[in-house]
Amino acid sequence: MEGILPLYKPAGMTSHDCVFRLRKIFKMKRIGHTGTLDPDVTGVLPICLGRATKVAEYITDAGKAYEGEVTIGFSTTTEDASGETVETKVVDKIITREEILAIFQNLTGEIEQTPPMFSAIKVNGKRLYEYARQGIEVERPSRKVQIYNMTLLDERTQFEGDTISFRFRVSCGKGTYIRTLAVMIGESLGYPAHMSYLQRIQSASMTLDDCYTLEQVEELALAGEVQSVLKPLEDGISDLPKYEISDKVAEKVKNGVVLEIPTHLEMVEGPIAVCLADGTVLAIYRKHPRKPGLLKPDKVLRNEQ
User: Fold this and answer.
1) Rounded alpha-carbon distances, angstroms, from residue 153 to 129, 150, 168, 192, 212
2) What are the residue boundaries of the Pseudouridine synthase II N-terminal domain, all occurrences included (predicted)?
3) Measuring CA to CA, which residue among 284, 243, 255 is closest to residue 62?
4) Which of 17, 38, 80, 298 is catalytic?
5) Whole-model pTM above 0.85?
6) Which residues of the chain have pLDDT under 50?
């Protein structure tokens, strides 16, 4: 069995919990998820089975889209609804729709984020959440992330009350913390804030409409029909630039030879999908670090002779 299972991750489970459950359902070990979702977060979690585990890292690096809710008026230790309250400040003014939209505009593009203490980022060989659970605050390196667009999912023209909540949709690049984005929205308005709800609605090319729940997957497994709902590994890397090759060159690619960079890919700095005319991806290549004009294999996906 191989392919990508678009799983709907329920609240209350970690991404690893989902993988553990699926290993028991499928009675196979070669399963991997494609980017951690916090326990409270629901939504699209592509699961790679068999050979498709080779493309898991590229799906993890692909763009994501979320629908979330930010609550203005108090912040939490975890930057989401599961944490303890850190700071409270009554919202003592009317916030206009125009103010929020202007902040969304300012936060679109390349922005800098500092990962939350309750996150899986490693500092000095230890994950931040391990420090956080011990009550230790450590310096976290800021990093640049890409916000493609933000949309306000609320028709109100004015927002008022001791606390204010509104929903939004965001499309972003890898490594973005939506919890931190919610805090940044609050800071821009002059108030502590946290993310009170979050659902991932898209990961790479997969959306909520593609997803199956764990219960549905279990039923499919009992009926022996799981393979029929798996997506080909190509779907997980459909956003990568393509380099189409002939059947003759394909045999060399399967053996990991270096290739000349075609003209249309000279400006590409990231991974490139080397494929046949029918769209079958044989390998992922990158620019050779020491030999200008050449590509070297990053990962060979199919090497059958």
Assistant:
1) 31, 10, 5, 21, 25
2) 23-178
3) 284
4) 38
5) yes
6) 305
Question: How far from each other are the two terminal CA atoms of the chain, in whole angstroms?
Answer: 20
Quick one: residue 124, left, alpha or beta (phi over 0 = left, psi -120 to 50 = alpha)? left
Q: Is 298 a catalytic site residue? A: no
Residues 245-296 have pLDDT tens digits of 999 999 999 999 999 999 999 999 999 999 999 999 999 999 999 999 999 9
Residue 22 burial (10 A CB sphere; 0-12, 13-18, 19+): buried
d(CA 298, CA 288): 10
Q: Could you tell me if 87 and 75 are in contact, meaning their C-beta atoms sit under 8 angstroms apart? A: yes
Q: Six-digit token pair at 131?
A: 């420090």
- pLDDT tens figures, 129-144: 777 677 777 777 788 9
b/e per residue 42-59 (b: at least 16 CB within 10 A): bbbbbbbbeebbbbbbbb
